[in-house]
Amino acid sequence: MLISLNWVKKYLNLSVTADKLAAKTTMTSQEVEGIIRPNDGLKNIVVGKTHEVTMMPDSDHLKLCQVDVGTGELTQIVCGAPNVKSNQFVIVALPGARIKDNVKIKRGKMRGYESNGMICSLEEIGFNNSVVPREYADGIYYFPEDVNPEIGASAFEYLGMDDEIIDLDLTPNRGDLQSIMGCVHEFGAFYHQKSTMPEFSMNLTSDKFKQEIKLTVDNEECVPVYKLRRIQGVKIAPSPQWLKNCLWNVGIRPINNVVDVTNYVLYLYGQPMHAFDYDTLTSKQVTVRNARSKEVIETLDGVKRELNNRDIVVTDGTNPIAVAGVMGDFAHEITSNTTNILLESAIFDARHVRETAKRLGIRSESSIRFERGINPDTVEVALNHAASLIQEIAGGKISEEVLVGSCVDFPVYKVKTSAEKIGHKIGIKLSNDELISILSDLGFEYEESSSDILVTFPHRRPDLRIEEDLVEEVARLYGYDQIPMTLPSTQIKPALLTPLQSVVAKTRDIMIGCGFEEIVNYTLVPKNEIENWDEVCDDTIVLPNPMTEDHEVIRRSMLRGMLNVIRYNQARRSKFQHLFEIGHTFTGNLKGEDQFEHTKLAVCLSGKYPDSWQQKGSNVDFYDLSGVLATVMKRIGISKQYSLKSGSSSELFHPGQVGKIMIENEEIGVIGKVNPLLEKQLDLEPTFIFEIDLDMLLSYPRSKISKIEVSKLNPVDRDLSFFVDKKYRNQDIISAINDLKINNLIGIKLFDVYAPNPEVTSFAYSLTFLNPQKTLTDQEISSELAKVMKMLEEKFDAKIR
Amino acid sequence: MDLEQKLSELKTKFEKQIDSAKDNDEINKFKVEALGKKGELTLILKQLGSLSADQRKEIGKKANKIRDYLNELIDTKRSDITRKAVEQEIKKDTIDVTLPGRDYFVGTKHVLNIVIDDLSDFFRSMGYTIDDGTEIEDDKHNFEMLNIPKGHPARDMQDTFFLTGDRKDDLLLRSQTSPSQVHALEKHDFSIGPVRMISYGRVFRRDNDDATHSHQFYQMEGFVVDRDIRMSDLLGTLSITLKHFFGAEREVRFRPSYFPFTEPSVEADVSCFFCDGTGCSICKHTGWIEVLGAGMTHPNVLNAAGVDSTTYSGFAFGMGMDRFAMLKYGIEDIRDLYTNDVRFLEKFEGES
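ok -> C-alpha cells follow
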C-alpha cells in the first residue's frame, strides 16, 4: 500500500522526516516495506520549452528540437519521440544529468547533429510503465496547459517527484489504512496531532433525477449502503497535473478526469467509487441484486466472465453493468464521448466481494477495500467530494438529490473498562491520564465515570469491537518496547514425554548411534509412484485439488520416497547410503473413524561399504539390514520377540528377499531388498529397506527389569550341525528349539550355514547352557542336547553330523 | 680341591653360562645342571658331612649365598631376554600412525529435528508439555475455532489443501500448528493446573516451491493459558526463547501485528546476525530479521473451546522451524531441507 506523504500533509501537520515516520509506523502500527523517493538518483532534470521542431534530414523519425532550458538561448536536442512538437513544456535532462538506472546524459552528436541533452519520457526518469498515462506511453511527457512551469526549473516538483512515498505492508484487519485519511488519523495519533478534514463544495442543480431513475436494492444484507449522484454535461479530458501527480505517486495510472476523480476519492477516503456513462443505460432503472447463475458480463478489461448467484451485480434493470465492488462492465464505462454520468458510492458485503474477486481472479483497488471493511460514515462524504471535484475539473451540473438504494445503520461498538484493567492485561501500570491521552490521540470518544471509562470505537475502525482490541490500541501507542519482560508466574508441573514421544526420540537416537543419517521427505508424493510400486489400496488419500503431479497423494509409506533420495545421492557419487526417516504416513477413506496417521520408522542401506586402504568394501546385503532391525528392536525395548516371515504382497520388494516383520501374529512392518525391476528403473545400486510402525510397537508392553542377576558361573557351549531339507528356514529351527523349553538353554546362535547340494541345507548352531546357581554336569547338558537332536530328527528329518 | 674352591668354580662357570645363554631353554638347562636336585651345587652340599661343624656352617652359608646369587642371575637374564624379545617385537610392529583410521559410522540428526529438539528441550525445562497434534485436521479446528470463519481474509494468508470440501467438518492438511491450541483447550481440566504446552510438526500450504516457499514446512506452537497471563509474560517468554536460540547477544524487538486468533498481536524481530544490525541485504537494510508471530489468545478462541475468557487469559506464539534453521545455519534455499542431499545432511554431524 503506497501512501504519499505530500498528500497526507494536506491534512496533517507532519514535521518528522519520512525515515522517522517509517520507523515509528513499523514499531507502532504496520510494517513499512520501504520509502520511495521518486527523484532518488536523478539530477539536472529541468523544465524546457520546445520552440522550432524540424525533422532531421535523412532520418524518418529523428527530430531536431530547439529548446529553451532557461539559459537565455535555445539549445538543440535531438529527439525521436513521435509526439514531440513545438511549444510544449517538456522534461529535459541536461548534459551531466542522471536519469533512470543512473544513466548519465552527455552532450553529443547524432548523425552529425549536435544534441545537448535529452527530452525525456516518464519512464526515462523512473516512472513505472503501469502508471504512465496511455497517451504518453510511446513518447515524451509534456505538461498540460493548466501547468505553467518555470522554464529551467527542476521538473521534479511539477511532476510530484519531490514526494516521499511510504510503502506499507498492511495486515488484513487494517482496511482503514488503505486510504490517505486513515493514515492521517494513524500518523496523527503517533504525534498527538489533530487532523483536518478535506473541504469541498458543490454547486447543486435541482432537476428530476429522482423521478427519472428507479433505484432498487434487493438485498440490504449484501448491499447495506448504496447511493447515486448524477452529473450532467461533463467534458471528459485528461486530468490536471496535480491530480495525475497524486494518482501516479500511489501507483494508479491516470485515465481521464472523471475516472481519475473516482480513483482520487477512493484513495483519499478508502471509499470505492464507480462512474457509469448515464446515457448508455438502456432503461433508466438501476437494480442491485444477486447475479443469476451463468449470467455473463464483459468487464472493462475486455474479459467475458460467467457469474453465479453468490455474486452481487449492479444492473440496468435487465443486464449487469458492474460486478459490485469488483469491476465495472465494458459497455457502460466512461469514454471520451461521455457527457452525463452516474456516480455510485456504496458498501458491499466484504465476504461476497472477497469470494467473487477470488473466483474471478480480479484484485481491484475497489475489491481490496470492500474485502477489508468500509467506513460507513464517509460513503456520502466521498460521493459528494467526488461530485464536487468532477464539477470543478470536468464541469457539469450536479443533481441536487442523492438517490439512496439502501442505508442501514451500522452498529456502534463500545467498551466499558478502566486504566487499571487495561494496564493489568498488558502488564504495566497505566494511569488514567495516560489512557485518556492515548484515547484522544486515537480520536476515540469516551465518557469517564468514577471508576471506569466507556470508550466508543469510531466507524472508521471496523476492526475494533471488544476490550482486547482496545488493549492492543493502548499497548501499541504506549509502545511495545516500553512493556516490561516477565515470565508467567503459573504453577509448573513435570513436562513428561508421552510414550510415543519417547519411542520416537529413542528410535532416532538408536538410528543415529547405528550410523544412519536422518532425512525428511515430503508427505505429498506423486500418484504414479504409489500406483506402480506400492501396495495398491483403496485407502490411499488422494488430494482433490493437487497443485502439481509431484505432490498429489498423501504417502502411505515412506519407503518409495526414500528410494528417490537414494537415487538423487547416488547420481551425486554417493556410493554408500544409510538413511532413516521417522514420520507420518496416512491411510483412510476420510469418512470412517479409522486412524489416519501412523508414526513409522523407515530405514535403508544401499550400495557398498566404503573401500579403505586395507580392504575393499563389500556390497551391503539383506543381513546387514536385518542386523540393524534386530538392534533397533532390541534397543526399543519391547518385551515381545519379533520374527520374520518370508514373503510380502508389496511389489516394492524382491520376492525372494523380503519378510514381514511379525510380533505374535501381527505384522508391524516389512523388510527386504528393493525389487530388481525397480532398481533397474531407478538405476539403483543394490538397496535394502525396512519400515516399522511405531504406533503398533507401542501397543506391546515395554520390557522391564525387575532383578539383575549376573551369574558367577561360566556358560557352556555345545555345537550342533545337521542337514535338513532346503525348505526349512533358520526361523523354523529356532522356533522349534525354543518351543522345547530346554532347561538352562540361554542362547542359540547360528554359526554356519551352507548348501552341500541343491536339495539340502546344512545348519550349525552353538547352543549355550547356563544354570546361574550351579555348575552343570556333562551329563545334564548332554541329555538336554539329546532332546533337541531327537526333535530335529523327528520334526525336520534332520541328519545330525 | 676343597669345597670352597669348588663353589667358586661353580660360580664362575655358571656366570659364563648364563651370560652366554640365548633363551629361556638354555637358562633352564644350565639352571638344572647347577642348581637342580642332581645339580652341581647339590653334589657339593652332599659333601658337607665330611666337614667339621664350624666349617659346615661356614661353607653352608656360602653355598646358600651362591645359590641366591645364581638365582638372581637367572632372573636378571630372563627379564633381559624378555625385554629384548619385546623390543624386537615392538620394532617389527611399528606402524604409520598417520594412516587413516577405519570408518566408524555415527549418524546425523536432520537439521529440522536439531532445531526442534533444541527448542523443545528448552520449553520442557520450563514445564511446557508437548502436544503431538495431527497433520490431518478439520476446518473447525484449523480455522473456525481459531476465530477464522468462512470468508475471513486471513484464510487467504493460508491457502489450504482441503481433502474433502471446505465445510466445518471437512478435513484438510493443517495449514498451521495452532489447531493444537484448540484441542488442548477442549480437553484441558484447569483444576489440575494451567495449560503450558508446545506443539510442533508439519504444516501445508498451497505455495509453489521455490527458494523461500515450500508447500510443506515445520511450525512450533507455544501456548499458555491461566488466570492472569499478561502481555508482559508473552514478551518475556519470547525474549528468552529467541536469545536462547539465536544467541544471548542478539537484540529482540516487538512490533504490532495481526493474527485472527490473538489480540493484541505481536511480531518479533531479532537484530540481524549477518550485519549485527547495521543493515545488509539479508535484513533488507533494516538491521532486523522477523522471526515469529505471537499474541494474547483472542477471547473468541477461549470461549469457542468452552474456556471462560473473563477468568482465563493466555498467549500463543508460532515459530517457523525451517526459517529458524535457515537463519541460524545460513541455509539459503528452503528446498535444501527436503532434498536430503547427504552432503548437506552430513554438515550437521557436529550439531546432532
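The radius of gyration of chain A is 41 Å.
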